[in-house]
Specification:
537 residues, alpha+beta, seven-stranded antiparallel sheet, 14 helices
């Protein structure tokens, strides 16, 4: 598969064709959803009664399935890499040739991912993350364990702090433990999650309510047409019989039956989210050794993230309503150029894996803060309920309430227009609803203000925000790239300001501070940046 001579150009395993095909399908699928899905749906009624077009559909589907495979084979054939003494060289591309020259000194994290096929054939996908890049620069899909071992040794020779990857996972062709990718000590175990934790993660998943609602309305959304009419007619007859039986029951029986249906939907949704948690976070372990963190998890596909503590730009600790009931948190350690929102990832861009701890206690969260910040910023907490957080100005409530009113104003304006146009909508009802929504928006603004806060000491700063849940973003001041103080018209009248702190992984905003306090904090942060002799990444 790969030549043994050092310095030669190497190829990935043929199983990398699956990797390239998956990238093509994901990119095409996202483009289809974003731009072409609605036009395709609109053409369905036009072609449904055309026998010629219907007969050609199998050929079209066959071509759609075959083209990604052919393109993936071509991409695999044009993909080469070379492991030099001080850098990794990658050449890929069919019509547009791309040459990547990645010095090992720029590497700030090594990630490994092993699918079920990789684990069966002793393969691993290795990515090298660098500072200042949004996407992964060095990705070697489905390479042999001995090749990954060679790459790890070369990187470690110039970056000893990174250590090695503990590939593990039942590889029949991998190197023995204690050599190669497993040569680094496992380090101190900080956290290990079990099956009960998977259930907690599933319950805390923000998609839990969405999945439950989707299951509840699925019967109303799936109306494919004439093809399933007999089945739908039978279901409809059964529903009519069930409705008749339901109306014949007493009030308590109806409530009990409704509760059973609701519990069934919630149970299915819980099963799906817990299954997803098992697939992604099964056997999650977090270790710390010599200034680096290594997490490993996954049931079918094993993911391993290795990152140096000095490379972490920001710690984000969040706690929703469910996690608050469990007295647990979620922690993310963001490196440079990390994308905070998966929705912001462009099509075809491979984003580096982020050190993500899905469930941990408050004591461990504070301990991780101490390890990441190397004992600095002791007065800055990452726990949302810490009393060291200061609240922002109460004028923030007024600003949020006005903003919410402006958001819902077009909706009520449209309803009033419909009432004026003699559509059967009562104007008095609309005005009552409008008036009744104002206290709700003020209450929501007050809740946001209660969650908003900030805390700082001579080394670090933390910003807290949230609505029902809470989120804390903490960082060291010496890692800041720029600081800006801005004022809105209302803030200028009240001598307030908003502080914007630019990090390599994003912007952290603290609104409605006293203008003098915001300027003083800005000047102090810039002083700490200029006076620090340590690198920010």
């Amino acid at each position: 598969m790969n030549p043994s001579a050092t310095g030669d150009w190497w190829r990935s395993s043929p199983f990398a064709i699956v990797f390239f095909a998956g990238n093509i399908v994901r990119t095409a699928g996202r483009a289809l959803i974003q731009g072409a899905l609605l036009p395709l749906i609109a053409t369905v009624p036009l072609v449904r009664d055309n026998p010629g077009i219907i007969g050609a559909l199998p050929l079209v589907f066959g071509a759609v399935l075959l083209l990604p495979l052919v393109a993936a084979i071509v991409q695999w054939a044009c993909f080469r890499f070379r492991i030099a003494e001080d850098r990794l060289l990658i050449r890929h591309g069919v019509f547009k040739k791309t040459a990547l020259d990645l010095p090992y000194e720029r590497v700030q994290g090594i990630n490994a991912r092993r699918s079920l096929v990789d684990r069966l054939f002793g393969l691993v996908t290795v990515t090298l993350d660098t500072s200042g890049s949004v996407q992964t620069e060095g990705r070697l899909p489905s390479i042999g364990m001995e090749v990954a071992d060679r790459l790890q040794r070369r990187v470690t020779a110039l970056r000893p702090g990174l250590g090695g990857l503990a590939a593990g996972g039942g590889s029949s062709a991998g190197t023995a433990r204690g050599r190669g990718l497993g040569a680094t000590r496992d380090g101190r175990m900080l956290l290990k999650l079990g099956p009960a934790d998977m259930v907690r993660i599933g319950l805390a998943n923000r998609n839990f309510i969405f999945v439950a609602a989707l299951i509840g309305v699925l019967g109303d959304l799936l109306r494919p047409g004439d093809l399933l009419d007999p089945i739908l007619a039978a279901v409809e007859a059964g529903l009519d019989s069930a409705a008749s039986a339901f109306t014949g029951l007493g009030t308590l029986a109806q409530l009990a039956l409704a509760a059973m249906v609701t519990a069934s939907i919630a149970g299915v949704a819980l099963l799906l989210t817990v299954t997803s948690a098992f697939l992604r976070h099964h056997d999650f372990t977090l270790r710390y050794d010599g200034g680096r963190f290594r997490s490993r998890a996954g049931l079918l596909t094993q993911r391993e993230v290795l990152v140096e503590a000095p490379k972490i730009q920001q710690l984000t600790v969040s706690q929703g309503l469910v996690l608050r009931g469990f007295r647990r948190y979620r922690l993310r350690a963001l490196p440079a150029a990390a994308l905070l929102s998966p929705d912001a990832v462009p099509a075809g861009v491979e984003v580096p894996d982020v050190l993500d701890v899905p469930l941990l206690g408050g004591r461990l969260a504070e301990h991780l803060r101490t390890l990441v910040f190397a004992g600095k910023a002791k007065g800055v907490s990452v726990l949302p309920r810490c009393r060291s957080f200061k609240r922002v100005s109460p004028w923030y409530i007024r600003a949020l309430a006005v903003r919410y009113c402006l958001v819902v104003a077009p909706v009520f304006g449209l309803l009033l227009f419909l009432a004026w146009a003699r559509v059967p909508v009562h104007t008095s009802t609309i005005l009552w609803w409008w008036a009744g929504s104002i206290p709700i928006m003020v209450l929501a603004a007050w809740q946001r203000w209660r969650r908003q806060g900030y805390a700082y000491d001579r080394d670090g700063l933390a910003s807290r925000s949230g609505f029902l849940g809470s989120e804390v973003k903490a960082f060291l001041m010496r890692k800041v790239q720029s600081v800006t103080v801005k004022q809105s018209p209302l803030q200028r009248r009240k001598d307030l300001a908003t502080l914007h702190v630019q990090l390599a992984c994003g912007i952290i905003t603290t609104p409605y501070l006293e203008h003098s306090a915001a300027c003083a904090l800005r000047d102090y942060i810039l002083y700490r940046v200029e006076s620090s002799r340590r690198r920010w990444h």
